Amino acid sequence: MPIIQSQIPYGAALYEWLHIHKLPLDNLAQQARRYDRAYLAWEAVRLVRNPFFITGTGFEGYFVGICHSPQEMLAKLLEIGHGMLASNARMYRYDFAFQSRLMKTLRREIIDRSAMEVWSSLLGATLAKLRCNVHYNDPTYRFQNETYWAINRLPFIRYRECENYIEQEYTLPCFSNGFKGKAEFDLNMLKPSDYDAGYVITHVGRFGHPLLRAYLRQEGLNVMGSREE
User: In the chain, what are the domain boundaries?
Assistant: First the structure.
């Protein structure tokens, strides 16, 4: 089974937040466990069980039996990416500074908690729509069931604090599948007009990371609590 070791997304910001509030990492990790299975399934589709690409985005599992080639899948992914960009443009039509912070946060050029919350909510709303494919398309349903059957037998994600960042280790299952003719997903091969949409769809999945979701949830509760006071 593949074992993945890496820094978590926005781990330096989480490391700083934990130390400012004098919170142990284990407490946040415990809260994050409710999101582990969904994220491990996402990573399994992205890295080891992608039907269309050698390394994909994570969204592809919702289109098994719907798209039938990497070209069809790429067109659908770009459609989703353009939709996310359009949603942000409509929501913050006159707030150009925040639109800029959204993209800079996605690119990890800055850390903006409000922007992180927007991306996390947008990812969740998009996935909620795509789950309809699971209920109305048998190949998608079987693919998701097989993926989660394997994921449910894996250990939780393990974390450790390093110097100024947080490292993770997790295991992904092996699959023997018949997906052939998989392509490279290369942003540099996209048309300039599609590049931002491609970048969004490739990187927005990091906002589904369990520890990041637990952090945003905790911060949201803290903000609500301070307002009530």
Answer: 3-228
